[in-house]
Structure formats: structure tokens, C-alpha cells
Amino acid sequence: MADEVFERALHAMSDVQRRSVEAASALVERLVNNVDGHRATERDDEGTDPPSTNDDVLAGFARLWRDSIASLAGVVPGSAAHTNAPYLDISAEGAHPALRVTIDPETSVGITDVWLHNPSGDATDKLRVHCGALQAHDGSTLPAMSVTADPDAFDLPARSSRGVQLSVDGAGAQPGTYRGLVFVEGLPDQWLPLEVIVPDASA
Amino acid sequence: MTALDPTLESVERVLHDTGRTVRRAMLDAIPDGEPHDWLYGPVRDYPLRAGKAIRPALCIAACCSFGGRESDALPLAVSIELLHNAFLIHDDIADGSEQRRGKPTLPETSGLAIALNAGDALAVVSNQVLRRHLRNLDRDLAERVHTEFDTMAMRTLEGQATELGWRRDRTADLTPEDYLNLIMHKTCWYTTIHPLRVGALIGARGRVDLRPMVRFGFHLGAAFQIQDDVLNLIGDEEEYGKEINGDLFEGKRTLPLIHLMSHAEGTDRAVVSSYLAMSRAERSPETVTEIRSLMEAYQSIEFTLDYAQGIASEAIDAFETAFAEAEPGADRDFVRDLIPYMLSRRS
Chain A residue with minimal CA distance to B210? Predict the structure, then answer.
């Protein structure tokens, strides 16, 4: 039976089958656009209209990127980052919260997740998270290639979130705390600090 | 019963094993105590009956295909199955059904009010299981999973409302396209699309594009529902577990009925129109037999099987896209083999 179904698919379809395929495709197309779509036209659950300009989309990213920083760094307790509670403004002066990764002495690798949120009704394509070289107080560096992102590049459909895994290879690095910046290619105003701790294995 | 294709046998084995695990977990999650006879006993009734377990098996297999472990998805699979059981009770009340999984329905044995309350309780327990599990997840991932559950529940309720509305308003001018739209909401979202999306989301920890899951899940779920329409007409009552021709008694706008509605001519058309205008109580076995005979005469069942074949063939393409990034292995194979299984199942 299994083979029969797959084999039949290779042969010419009857008119009825073709009609079912066309009807199903049209329906799915409509639904996918409503759920994860590129151009949502319906009002959202709160009854507000989705942002309609690119600036609005980027503003939405900015707000939620800040949420991400605050929540990951533990600055905003509980679920405040996902409510209307105030959140840390990364443009403010003073110490910024950061993504923190501690290198596992056994594997020499440290891993963390960073999330991007798109609350708007428009999809944004071809985003890429990357990091520059990290530096310690004494001038020691972890090269940019030590930090890899998974997925490397991705799209963010309307009203969706996506986690990106950052892996830091600390093999051969001197013990200490290294600091650098994470950027998102495609979102020029977004960045967040990254702090990588390489423990002293001899301690 | 004829022997199954080995591929389909392995599908049945996975469903059987998953069903057993999920059933135990559901019963563990349901509290007991007083009032046992009026609440906790009825609440346990449907979870104690062996179901097909397609929803939890899909959720777990999708999770494992995208890098997760069974234990990552099991609580979500249990939550989905508990909600499914809640929907079944409310469905049986709305439809006036007599049999469920080979036994009298809960409304038949406990009365409408007790059954309605038990259905509510199962929905609450489902949410408890979900909430407990989400506490262990990254907050963003938890939020996404929660949103998926909200979306699934609303789509299902919209579909259920549409079907009930068609029956209440005796809507007759329906097309197969209307039917697909109905089952997309009523069946596919919570049977296939949601388990696939949630499983993949958890397995990949958010790093997967869920859009192709809608396309694949819809085609898989539509094949499931259309086969259900056919089994309700030509199935073996013992294997199928529900009363044969039950949909005809209830006046459900199934695909064979929609085909008959749009193709019947002359006096046959008058017979169909009169049948559609009746309430369930007014539909006698003779009326149902007459409609069933007209379906034979107008080849409505053949049309339905052909239509399902087209849907299933498209599901194969949709699967390859949705699972392009999945890890090869038994879990991925299981999901793929569910496509032919949907058209060959007898229960």
C-alpha cells in the first residue's frame, strides 16, 4: 500500500485528483500567509493594525531586541520583559547587561541562545547574527571566528520569534573574561554585548 | 483482516507504543478523589480507551526528527491528547453520537451534563500539563509554544462552529473547496499541523521554519479526515469503533455527501434536499439507507477516494519540503509513512 500510494503520485492525475490538489494548494497558501505570512492584512488579537512601514518593523525589532537582552541578562525579573513593564534601554549610559557564556573546561565550548522577535505583520528576510573579535582587559583576544551562529542565516516571518544558538570555541584561550558585540546583519541599529568567561582550569 | 504492508505495520507499532505511553501519562496527570462518580470517573473514561494516538506520535516524531528527545515532547504530546479527549466529549454531545472507540459515548452513559463537565475538566488538566512543562523551557520558546496552543484551539473551535452552523442553517450549496476549508480548521489544525509544528519547534529549540508544516500538516490531516468520512460509510464497525452511517444520521457535511448534494438530479435531488432539512430525530434508518444508495448511484464514494488520492500525492511533496532539514532516521520515516497509512487505515 505504501509503495502504491507513492507510485500513483508519479502517474498522471485524474481530473478529480487535480481538482483536489489545486483547491488544497489555494487554501494552504491563504492560511500560511495568515499564520506566518509575509503580508498579514488582518488586525491582530488586540485589535491594533500591524505596522505598515519598514521603520515600524525595525522599531518593533528594536523594542524586542532590548527585551531579549534584558531577559537573558536577568535584569528584568519574572516575565516583565514580555509585558508592558519598563525594560532596560541599551542606549542609556552605564553598564549594559550582556549575553554571558561560560566555556566548559571539558569541551572548551560555551553555548547560549539569543532570540529575535518580530511582532509586526511583515516578514523580514535574510537576517544573520554575527560577532566581532572579543577582547580581555589585558589585550588577549578571542577571534571573531570563535563565535558561530546556528542558523547561519534565516528569515523571520510575521509575528514570529526565532532562537539563534551562539557557540563560542574557547580552545587555547587564556583564562579571563572576554567582551565583544553581537550584531544582526540586516538590522543596522541592533547590537548587544557578549561576555565570554574562560575559567582557569588549574584553579 | 488482511495483512498490512510491513511499512504500515511499523507505523501501527509506533502508534500502539506511543498510545500506551501517552495513555499512562494522561491517567497520571488526571487527579482522583471526590466526586469520583460524577467527575473523576467520567474524566478518566475516554483516556482509558485506546485511541489512534496519531497526534502525540506526530508531535514526538517531529521533535526527534529535528534534534530533540522523546522526553522533550512527551508532556506536550500528553497535553495535546488530553485536549483531544476533551474535544471528543464535546463533539459527541454536539453530534448526539452513540459510540466512541467501540463503546457507548460518555453522554450516553453519564448524561449530557456530567459529560459536558468532564470535557471541561479534561481541558483544564491539559492546560495544567502544558503549563508545568513550559516552566522548564526558555521563556521565549515557552511563549511560542503557548501561542501555538492558542492558535490551534481557536482554529478548531472555528471549524467546529462552521460545521454546526451548516447543520443548523441546513446549508446545502457546498463545494469540495468549502469542505477543505472546514476540515483545515476543524480537523487538520489540531490533528496534524499543531503536533508537527510544536514538535519541530521543541526539537529544534526554535531554529526551524514552521511554515512548511502548515502545508504538509494540512494535506496529511485532510487525507486522514477524508478517509474517516469513507470509513463511516463502508468501514467495519468493530474495527472503526463508531457507528457506521453515523455521519449520515447526524447530517454531517462530509465530502461524499457534498458530492451527492451537488450531483443529484430530478427526484433524487428532492430526496437529498428533504433529508438535509430533517433533524437527527427525523432521520430514520430507511432515510439513511436511501441516501447511502444514492451515494452508490452517483459514485460519491469513488469521487471521495479519488479526491483523497490527489491530496495524499501532494502530501508527499509537502513532506519533503517540511522535513528537508530533519535528521534521517526512524522518526522521519514514521512521519513519511503516515501518508499512505492515512488512506489505508481501518480504524
Answer: A36
DSSP string, A30-47: HHHHHHH-SB--S--TTS
pLDDT in tens, B63-116: 999 999 999 999 999 999 999 999 999 999 998 888 898 899 999 999 999 999
**Degrees, nearest 5: CA angle B286-B288-B290:** 70
Least confident of A4-13, B148-157, B224-233: A4-13
Exposure string for B86-96, b = 16+ CB within 10 A, e = fewer: bbbbbbbbebb
Compute φ and ψ for B101, nearest 5 degrees.
Answer: 50, 45
C-alpha cell at A35: 499564520
ipTM above threshold 0.85: no
Specify the pTM. Answer: 0.69
- Cα B97-B98-B100 angle, rounded to 5 deg: 85
DSSP summary character for residue A13: P
Mutate: best of B1, B178, B207, B338, partner A, most A CBs <10 A: B207
Measure the CA–CA gap between B313 and B305, rounded to whole angstroms.
Answer: 12
- pLDDT for the residue A36: 61
Contact A16 B310 (CB under 8 A): yes
Domains of chain B from N-terminus onward = 6-344 (1.10.600.10)
A31 shares contact with chain B (CB less than 8 Å): yes
- Measured between alpha carbons, how far is residue B10 from residues B16, B32, B178, B241, B277 in Å? 10, 35, 35, 22, 45
Closest partner CB to B215 (pick from A6, A32, A113): A32
- Tens digits of per-residue pLDDT, A26-47? 888 877 766 664 433 333 333 3
Contacts of A67 in chain B (CB under 8 A): none
Helices (H), ranges, chain B: 6-29, 41-48, 54-65, 70-95, 106-110, 112-134, 139-168, 176-183, 194-203, 211-234, 237-240, 246-250, 255-263, 266-277, 285-297, 300-322, 330-344
